[in-house]
Amino acid sequence: MVEKDTYKTIETSTEAILFKEKNSKFIGYAYPVLNEDEVKLHIETLKKEHHAARHWCYAYQLGTENISYRANDDGEPNNSAGMPIYGQIQSFEVTNILIVVVRYFGGIKLGVGGLISAYKTTAQLTLEASKIVKKTINVNYLISFDYKNMNTVMRIIKEKNLNITNQKLELDCQITIAVRKKEAASVFEIFNHLFEISIQEI
């Protein structure tokens, strides 16, 4: 089996998407997130913005290899909101994403089936309106070397088209590079064989 080294996510937050069902309003939002703190922040912001709403249901998924996710019904009947939203995250195969659906109750009960359908549709429309991008799963390496070996290191970085994420170039130099996962081992080997140059995963 070929190891997967790409994943799909969204580049930026999505504009609010409105879906109406029997006078209830469902407003969908999608955000790129990297951790639970960011998730909390977006939900708190939406609760302030839509303080008159009845429910703020959401689902998120974090991670590219070790996946963590959560689905929250926020007072709606069990599994009628969070899981239908999460189902769309799975069906669009995206990660590092939060989808929140804000509901304003319109006075007519939708029943569990109606709720599942409304939350699922809102999440689907929100994802369809999102800019989904493919990114690579990267391994980060720290390369340490003396200034005199700068040309050697830079030549390899250029040849291999490596992405420098951080650098400190003084008498003793340090460069951090992000390498696509499937190329990581070979890049490590190249630097590891060089005299006076050390490489370590961070």
Blueprint of the fold:
Layout: E1 6-10, E2 17-21, E3 24-32, H1 36-49, E4 55-62, E5 68-72, H2 82-91, E6 97-104, H3 111-128, E7 132-136, E8 138-146, H4 150-159, E9 163-168, E10 172-180, H5 181-192, E11 197-201
Antiparallel strand pairs: 1-7, 2-3, 3-6, 4-5, 4-6, 8-10, 8-11, 9-10
Helix pairs in contact: 2-3
Short description:
It holds the Pfam family Impact_N. With 202 residues, the protein is of the alpha+beta class. The chain has helices spanning 36-49, 82-91, 111-128, 150-159, 181-192; strands at residues 6-10, 17-21, 24-32, 55-62, 68-72, 97-104, 132-136, 138-146, 163-168, 172-180, 197-201.
Q: Could you characterize what this model shows?
A:
This protein is an alpha+beta fold and 202 residues long. The protein folds into 2 domains: 6-134, Ribosomal Protein S5, domain 2 (2-Layer Sandwich), CATH 3.30.230.30; 137-201, Alpha-Beta Plaits (2-Layer Sandwich), CATH 3.30.70. The protein has 5 helices and 11 strands; from the N terminus they run βββαββαβαββαββαβ. The longest helix is centred in the middle third of the chain and has 18 residues, at 111-128. The chain starts with 5 loop residues before the first strand and ends with a strand. The mean pLDDT is 94. Residues 22-126 form the Impact N-terminal domain. InterPro entries: Impact (IPR023582), Impact_N (IPR001498), Impact_N_sf (IPR036956), Ribosomal_Su5_D2-typ_SF (IPR020568). Pfam families: Impact_N (PF01205).
